[in-house]
Amino acid sequence: MGYSKPQIRLSLSILALCFVFGVSSGATKKPPLKPININTANSEELQQVPGIGPVTAEKILQMRKSYGAFKSVDDLLSIRGIGKKRLEKMRKYLTVSKSTAGNRAPRPTVSASPPKKTGPTSFDPPSVEAEEPPR
Question: Residue 60 belongs to a domain with what CATH number?
Answer without folding.
Answer: 1.10.150.320
